Amino acid sequence: MKIFLLGIAGTGMGSFAGLLRAAGHEVSGSDENVYPPMSDKLAEWRIQTFTPYSAGNLEKAKPDMAVVGNVIRADNPEAKAVRRKGVPHMSFPETLEELFLKTRHPVVVAGTHGKTTTTSLLAAVLHHAGRDPSLLVGGVPLNFNEGFRLGHGEHFVIEGDEYDTAYFDKGPKFLHYRPQTAIVTGAEFDHADIYRDTPHYESAFEKFYSILPPDGYVAACSAFPNWKRLASFAKCKVETYRADSEEADWTARWVTLGPAGATFEVAFRGTAEVRVTLPAAGRHNVENALGVYAACRALGLKPDQIAAGFAAFKGVKRRQELRGEVKGVAVIDDFAHHPTAVRETIAAIVAQYPGRRIVAVFEPRSNTAMRKIHQDEYAHAFSSAAETIISQPTAIAKVPESERVDAKKMAEDIARSGSKARWMEGPDAIVAALSKEARSGDVILAMSNGGFGGIHQKLLDALSKRT
User: Fold this and answer.
1) Cis peptide leading into residue 259 (ω within 30°)
2) I want to staple 31 with a disulfide (CB 3.0 to 4.6 A). Which of 9, 155, 299, 319 is the partner?
3) In this predicted structure, what is the pLDDT of residue 315?
4) Best CA proximity match to 211, nearest among 239, 234, 229
């Protein structure tokens, strides 16, 4: 089938294009701009791309059907052409459901935090155990080097996003994924551009729990106060997991965090099952691994199979990823943007690099971070860092002035809470300052859910030129 993707260059849509191509479809697509690394990947997968959006692109591609990404508005010239010409069209989640999920066992990872890492780890463990799963995730797991995988096994592992689906379907993506087995990592208010408030946000998870079949299974993180109310919407078996409490079904005991990652004992209702080593730093990743362990046990894996899969996990790009170390200064890239994720990521880096000075550099770039919803929480999210630099978000103008986060005030609040902090106007100014100030032994942790102006490579280049 000839399939055309509107909005092909996004992380999720690009990976889906690769999945469609792997399944034997003739794939092409369009976007406003197509940049590396996605442009390189699309070329590698032999997928033709068109820029910018134009009705003429559909004339050239002559698709049998179109997949409409959620960045596409109803007045997009190609969206209008699709409707005018009567080209059959669906959203990306609908197409995934129709072409891949109806004949497989979907294993869906949902939640505010840790979805990409948890999904990647789950797929890696199943693959290591010989289950040959399929995968679609909004990142690049280093075990597979792609955000997708077309396996021959019955399981399809999916990162379940609560963001909306398309201009013609404003419901959450994950409602299309037919979950039979699920992990819910917790729910804290996010995506303030589409959810009004916490009850509205939590309603998405209420629906997610409710669509699991009676013979399904959920591993639910019980570290969040609302977990029990949300899980009450499930008609299937629910087991809880938590890294820092003995009150969950699945718990981690004798946890050791260090440069090599984490080692801990997994226990089920107080009975030890196995001791594992996870090459991923931080207590939050211990918790993510517990969710994966619980789900894999429900899918029939034995403790030693899961432990072997954990040990073989290579991590995920842009999640605590060491981009390089120059003259004793390490530069790390991470996707953290919610205050909870920022706090946990910094704590993980502190454990991974003991005795070294951690400089946290943060761009509040996500649609929620650019709003003042979590302004007060950020004041305490950076306390584990020796120094914090807050960058002015480049896209702040798209947020109504009355709703905007105050990046300068964020830095001032962090400083008032007892941590060294300052505001800077953007990545180039930060690079100029840190390339002079950083000293051997420093670890610079740059966090943003975007490219952050290429700050990681710019820092490495500037440090290498320093005498």
Assistant:
1) no
2) 9
3) 86
4) 234
Find which of 109-118, 337-346, 366-375 is predicted with most confidence, using mean pLDDT.
109-118
What is the DSSP secondary structure assignment for residue 391, as one 8-state letter?
E
pLDDT digits (tens, 9 = 90+) for 426-438: 999 999 999 999 9
Would the pTM count as exceeding 0.90?
A: no
Look-up of token digits 């997991």: 241
Q: What token pair was written down for 18? A: 């690769």
Q: Cα separation of 138 and 155, whole Å?
A: 18
Average pLDDT of the residues in 387-406: 90
**Domain 104-311 maps to which CATH number in 3.40.1190.10, 3.90.400.10, 3.40.30.10, 3.10.20.30?**
3.40.1190.10
Q: Phi, psi (5° rounding) for residue 17? A: -60, -45
**pLDDT reported for residue 40:** 86
Pick the CATH number of 321-465 from 3.90.190.20, 3.10.310.30, 3.40.1080.10, 3.40.1050.10: 3.90.190.20
* Of the candidates 258, 285, 442, the residue with the CA atom closest to the CA atom of residue 352: 258
E-strand stretches of 259-352: 261-268, 271-278, 321-326, 329-334
Of these ranges, 149-153, 312-316, 413-417, the one predicted with the greatest mean pLDDT is: 149-153
Mean of per-residue pLDDT scores for the chain: 93
Q: Which two tokens stand for residue 189?
A: 């208010």
Kindly list the strands in the beta sheet with 271-278, ordered across the sheet, starting from the edge strand earlier in the chain.
148-149, 134-136, 155-160, 105-110, 181-184, 217-221, 237-242, 250-258, 261-268, 271-278
CA-nearest of 197, 218, 198, 200 to 209 is: 218
Q: What is the rounded distance in angstroms from the CA atom of residue 381 to the CA atom of residue 135? A: 32
| CA 408 to chain CA mean position, Å | 27
